């Protein structure tokens, strides 16, 4: 990994390194050759799910794996294809994380084993068509209890994996007490429909959907037992927001490594452009962004493993690393010139996908306000 300039990989133990290297080899062998085609056609490679399952990495956080290991796995996926990294993050982090943290023992036993085996794929439905940053107060999807059944009504947007997911964790406001609760909606539930969002310019391989819930009937046994308010939802986002910071590091590292190889091979004025001062300056800027961001997420993982990390820690990492990513992929595109906007050279996909990573799991502005509240003691939210 030429992008790991300070050798943070060496912080992993030998067993952890073996897992990371296995994922690295899989991404190079199975994902890289088809990444551009899948992206261009906005088609998800379902045939890779059984191969993903053989890696035995789904559910690692819930089997005692260190956050440092799971972070490096996120990095490796996004270093090759942020779309596939996002697919796995939604399934492994948001969906499985919600069930593991907020579900009952029975619910964990019912759903987590098949999800860990990737026999069932998960999605996470929080964002709505009319709400994004104000989701905590502005959630419009409702849940009404009628005996042993809940009736869900509303709409969700930008829900990754939702067109084919077997389980969708849906967040809705209880009409009785006004609190946000979580429900696992299984494939085929009447009143649930998911329509693929077309014409995206980023993460095109990810199957994002508009979800409509029309008198959708969900059994009480599918309500997550410990999801009783938005603070519980936020606990999931705190964890996965750190994962998005690792995604950003992977995305910009992949872009840096592409730019470096291109600069060595591309000749102008009779020699490789890697020998020109201005090109070297851009490469060093890219590497600097990768290195400082990787240092931040490594420390974040250490705080997670120590059980002392807070909302503001993951918010800072997400905000900082995605800004640095946006800069870095832009410099990579600059090094490649016109070739940087052609998928054949790889960089264009990283540039486009970085825009989605920059925006989801809390915008830079919202994450800045989370950190700002922590350091000043004064909330500046509207």
UniProtKB/TrEMBL annotation:
Domain Acyl-CoA dehydrogenase/oxidase C-terminal per the UniProt entry, residue ranges: 228-375
Oxidoreductase is among the record's keywords: yes
SUPFAM superfamilies: Acyl-CoA dehydrogenase C-terminal domain-like, Acyl-CoA dehydrogenase NM domain-like
UniProt cross-references to PANTHER family, sorted A to Z: ACYL-COA DEHYDROGENASE, ACYL-COENZYME A OXIDASE
Record family assignment: Belongs to the acyl-CoA dehydrogenase family.
Cofactor(s) needed by this chain: FAD
Stretches assigned to the Acyl-CoA oxidase/dehydrogenase middle domain: 123-216
GO molecular function, a single term: flavin adenine dinucleotide binding
Organism: Streptosporangium roseum (strain ATCC 12428 / DSM 43021 / JCM 3005 / KCTC 9067 / NCIMB 10171 / NRRL 2505 / NI 9100)
EC number: 1.3.8.6
Protein name: Glutaryl-CoA dehydrogenase
Domain Acyl-CoA dehydrogenase/oxidase N-terminal residues, every copy: 14-119
The keyword Nucleotidyltransferase appears for this protein: no
A single BP term in Gene Ontology: fatty acid beta-oxidation
Keywords: FAD, Flavoprotein, Oxidoreductase
Protein origin, superkingdom: Bacteria
InterPro entries registered for this protein in UniProt: ACX4-like (IPR045008), Acyl-CoA_DH_CS (IPR006089), Acyl-CoA_Oxase/DH_mid-dom (IPR006091), Acyl-CoA_Oxase/DH_mid-dom_sf (IPR046373), AcylCo_DH-like_C (IPR036250), AcylCo_DH/oxidase_C (IPR009075), AcylCoA_DH/ox_N (IPR013786), AcylCoA_DH/ox_N_sf (IPR037069)
């Amino acid at each position: 990994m030429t992008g790991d300039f300070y050798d943070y990989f060496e912080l992993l133990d030998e067993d952890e390194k073996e897992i990371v290297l296995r994922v690295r080899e899989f991404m190079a062998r199975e994902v890289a050759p088809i990444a551009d085609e899948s992206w261009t056609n906005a088609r998800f490679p379902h045939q890779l799910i059984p191969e993903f399952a053989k890696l035995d990495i789904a559910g690692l956080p819930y089997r005692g794996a260190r956050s440092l290991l799971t972070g490096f796995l996120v990095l490796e996926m996004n270093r090759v294809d942020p779309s596939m990294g996002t697919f796995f993050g939604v399934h492994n982090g948001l969906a499985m994380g919600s069930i593991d943290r907020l579900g009952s023992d029975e619910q964990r036993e019912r759903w987590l084993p098949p999800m860990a085996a990737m026999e069932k794929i998960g999605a996470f439905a929080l964002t709505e068509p009319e709400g994004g940053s104000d989701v905590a107060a502005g959630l419009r999807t409702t849940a009404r209890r009628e005996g042993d059944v809940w009736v869900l009504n509303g709409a969700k947007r930008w829900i990754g994996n939702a067109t084919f997911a077997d389980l969708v964790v849906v967040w809705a406001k209880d009409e009785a007490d006004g609190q946000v609760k979580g429900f696992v909606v299984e494939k085929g539930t009447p009143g649930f429909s998911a329509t693929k969002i077309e014409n995206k310019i980023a993460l095109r391989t990810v199957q994002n959907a508009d979800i409509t819930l029309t008198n959708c009937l969900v059994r009480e046994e599918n309500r997550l037992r410990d999801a009783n308010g938005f603070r519980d939802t936020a606990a999931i986002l705190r964890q996965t927001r750190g994962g998005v910071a690792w995604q950003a590091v992977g995305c910009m590292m992949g872009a840096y490594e592409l730019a470096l190889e291109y600069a060595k091979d591309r000749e102008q004025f009779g020699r490789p452009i890697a020998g020109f001062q201005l090109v070297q300056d851009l490469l060093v800027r890219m590497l600097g962004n990768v290195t400082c961001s990787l240092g931040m997420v490594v420390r974040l993982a250490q705080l997670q493993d120590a059980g002392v990390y807070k909302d503001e820690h993951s918010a800072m990492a997400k905000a900082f690393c995605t800004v640095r990513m946006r800069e870095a992929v832009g410099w990579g595109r600059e090094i490649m010139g016109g070739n940087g906007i052609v998928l054949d050279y790889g960089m264009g996909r990283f540039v486009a996908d970085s825009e989605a990573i920059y925006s989801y799991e809390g915008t830079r502005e919202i994450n800045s306000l989370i950190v700002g509240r922590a350091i000043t003691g004064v909330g500046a939210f509207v």
